Amino acid sequence: MSEDVTPPSGNLAIFDLDHTLTKKGTWTRFVLTTVKTRPHLWLPIIFAMAKNQWLYKRGRAPRCGVKKAMMRISIVGWPKEKVEAYAKRFAAHEVASGLRPGAIEALAHHKAAGDTFMVASAAVDAVVRPICEGLGIEHYVATDMSYENGKLASEFGSENCYGREKLLRVKAYLAQNPHLKQNHTKVTMYSDSHSDLDVLLWADIGVAVDPSKQLKSLANQHGLEVVNWM
Q: Is 12-227 in CATH node 3.90.76.10?
C-alpha cells in the first residue's frame, strides 16, 4: 500500500482489477505461471480449486479458501524475492496485452482530466502492486500476503479484500491519506462485479463495467451507470 502527500488535482477514479481493468482474472493465471515447470502440481491445483469452490458455494468455506489452497500448493515457503519476481513478470504481460480496451480509454480520459487513480482489488498485493506500477497508479488496496523469515506464509496478511471488506479498506486508506478525498473531490468507482455494490453505491459515481445479469439488475435498481469495455 503506497502513500503520497502531494495534494491531488481533479477527482479520484477507483478501479476494480480483475475483469474490469484486465480482460481476465489474475490469481489463477498467476498461480499457473508458478507451476508451469512443475507438472506434478497441476492435478493437485485443479483438485484444490474445484473442492474449495464447491465448499464456498455451499457456505462451508470462505471465498478466500480457494486462493489459500492454491497458494499453499504452489508458492508457500518461497522467498519473498522469488514471489515478487514471478509477479513482476506476470504483471508486465498484463500491462502490455491483458488490459481491456475500454479500460485503457478510461485511464486516458481520467489522466487527461488530471484525476488521481486508485485500484481496489481482491487480488493479492504481490500482483496488484506491479500492475499498478506499470500503469502509473500510486494507490491501491488488495489482499495482502504475509511473510515469515523472508518466506511466504500460509495465511494472508489481511482479510480478503472482497465485498464489504473492500469498502472498509478503501475508507481506511482514504482516512490515512485525507489529501486523496477532499470536499471538492468526486469519487468514481468502476467494477464488473456485484460484489462491489457497496463501493459502487458509496462512490459519487458508480459505473458497472460489462455487468453480469445480476449487476445489471442492481445497476438499474440503484441508478448506476453501465458501460461496455469489451
A: no
